[in-house]
Write a structure and sequence with these properties.
The structure is a homodimer.
Chain A (H helix, E strand, L loop, with lengths): L14 E5 L5 H4 L1 E5 L5 H9 L4 H11 L1 E2 L1 H6 L6 H14 L2 E3 L11 E3 L1 H4 L2 H14 L12
Antiparallel strand pairs in A: 1-2, 3-5, 4-5
Chain B binds a DNA duplex (30 and 30 nucleotides) through helix 5.
DNA sequence: GATCTCACTTGCAAATCACAAGTGACTAGG
DNA sequence: CCTAGTCACTTGTGATTTGCAAGTGAGATC
C-alpha cells in the first residue's frame, strides 16, 4: 500500500515517447506521455484516463472489429479528431491494431491485441460499479460489454 | 452485448443535476452530468473518466482517511481547484464523505462510503493491467492499492 | 475517368486545466 | 482577547485540450 509515498515532492518521474513506425502517418506519429508518479494506477490513468479511450476498447470488446466510421457511429458521438488521436495512442501502446496491417487505411478495421483484451476485467468492474451505484441517478442506464 | 446500439443517432440521453444540501458551500453546490449514452461503462466514464478522480479514491483506499492538504501531498500533484471540484463531485455522488459531517471544514478528513469501497476491484484491475502492459514503457512503475 | 465514400486533417471557438495569489475561518500562543 | 499561523478552499489568468465544421486525398464504384 502507498508504495509511492516516499517520493520527494519536487521530482518528476519521467516522460516517454511512444512510437511505432509501421507505415501510415497515423501509425508512425509519436505521442509523449508524462508519467505523474510511479504508481501503477496513476500510470494507467496517464494513458487511459479520459472520457473516450476506454469506450474505443469497449466497442472492440463488443464487436471484435470496428472501422473508423463505425466508431463514429457509437452513441456517445466522439469527434473525428479525438477518435484519430486515441486510435493513434492505443495503437502505439499496443492495445489495438489494424486487422490488415499492411493494407491501406480504407476499410481497414481495428481489433484488440492481447493487451487490449486484458482490459476486459477492468471494464467489467467499472460497468458493474455503475450498474450498482449510478442507476439511482440515471435509471435508463443499461448493461454493457 | 452492445445493448445500446439500437439508439437513434440524434437523441441525447439526459442530464442530471447532482446535489447534496448538507451544509458547507462545497457540499451544497450542484454539478450537471451529461450522460452520453445508456451504456453503463460510458456512464461510469461520464463521472470518473479523467486523470484525477480515481486517484482520490486510490488515496482513500490506501489511507482510509485523508484531509485536503494530504491529498495535495500525493506525488501526482493535483492542483487545488481541481481537487476541490473532484471532492465536490465525489461527495455529491456519494462515493466519499467527511469523517465529521457536522463539523467545520478544517481538519475534517474524507473517507470512502460503501459505494467508494466498491470501486476497489476496478482499481485493482486497472493497476494489474498497468503492471502487466505498461511496465515495458515505464520500468520504474511500482504496485499500488 | 468522374464520382463517391472513407479515413482522416485542419482551423477556430469554447471548455477545461495548471499555476499563483488570494480569502476567510478556526486555532494555538502570549 | 488579540495576533500570527495554518488549513480548506476560491479566484484570476494564461495555456492546453476539446468540440464542431469544413476540408483533403486516396482507393473503390460506376
Amino acid at each position: 500500500m502507498a508504495a509511492y509515498s516516499d517520493r520527494g515532492l519536487d521530482q518528476r518521474d519521467g516522460r516517454f515517447d511512444l512510437a511505432v513506425g509501421v507505415g501510415t502517418d497515423l501509425e508512425s506519429e509519436t505521442q509523449a506521455i508524462d508519467w505523474r508518479s510511479k504508481c501503477s494506477i496513476a500510470a494507467c490513468l496517464d494513458v487511459l484516463g479520459d472520457k473516450w479511450t476506454l469506450l474505443i476498447v469497449r466497442d472492440l470488446i463488443s464487436y471484435e472489429t470496428r472501422t473508423y466510421s463505425e466508431f463514429l457511429g457509437s452513441p456517445e458521438r466522439i469527434s473525428t479528431n479525438i477518435l484519430a488521436d486515441r486510435l493513434r495512442l492505443l495503437t502505439s501502446l499496443g492495445v489495438i491494431e489494424r486487422t490488415n496491417p499492411a493494407g491501406a487505411a480504407r476499410n481497414n478495421a481495428y481489433r484488440l491485441t492481447p493487451s487490449g483484451r486484458d482490459l476486459r476485467p477492468a471494464l467489467e468492474e467499472l460497468g458493474r460499479w455503475a450498474q450498482k451505484h449510478l442507476k439511482q441517478y440515471y435509471p435508463e442506464m443499461v448493461e454493457s460489454v
